[in-house]
Inverse folding.
């Protein structure tokens, strides 16, 4: 007989050997193999749960990170707005102070100009009066050089005094 058609004895001994091997494997190796598979399955399930928990934690951290970034952005915008408002306030105050100071300087300059104008008018009046007196003196001297003219002029002045 060949390999294609086995003998009944060979078949019997092959089945018997396989049965004994199966019995030995079931008695000694089957439980440890099943236990190892069970442990491996539990380990994989535990790893899957841990991976899922880690993924959930990562998503939670990403969400918290987004919230923190948004909060930081809002705080930065708020600080920028406050800084801008403060800058505008400082600029406005500086402009007001400059305007007030300019107004004070203008008022002081106007007052100085008025004082100088009054002083110039006084000097002009004094100079005009001095010139007038000098001119009158020269005219009177030229007209009153002789004694008779002086006498006539004095009489005329005396006559005018009671009138005023």
């Amino acid at each position: 007989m060949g390999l294609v058609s086995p003998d009944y004895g060979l078949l019997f001994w092959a089945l018997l050997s396989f049965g004994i091997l199966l019995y030995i494997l079931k008695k000694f190796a089957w439980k440890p193999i099943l236990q190892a598979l069970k442990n491996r399955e539990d380990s994989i399930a535990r790893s899957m749960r841990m991976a899922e928990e880690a993924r959930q934690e990562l998503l939670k951290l990403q969400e918290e990170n987004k919230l923190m970034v948004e909060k930081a952005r809002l705080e930065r915008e708020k600080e920028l707005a406050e800084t801008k408002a403060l800058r505008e306030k400082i600029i406005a105050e500086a402009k007001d102070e400059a305007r007030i100071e300019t107004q004070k300087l203008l008022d002081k300059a106007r007052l100085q100009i008025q004082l100088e104008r009054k002083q110039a008018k006084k000097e002009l009046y004094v100079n005009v009066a001095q010139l007038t007196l000098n001119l009158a003196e020269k005219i009177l001297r030229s007209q009153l050089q002789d004694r008779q003219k002086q006498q006539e002029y004095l009489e005329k002045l005396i006559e005018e005094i009671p009138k005023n």
Summary: The mean pLDDT is 89. The first helix runs from residue 8 to 143. The CA atoms of residues 17 and 63 lie 64 Å apart. Residues 41-163 form one domain.
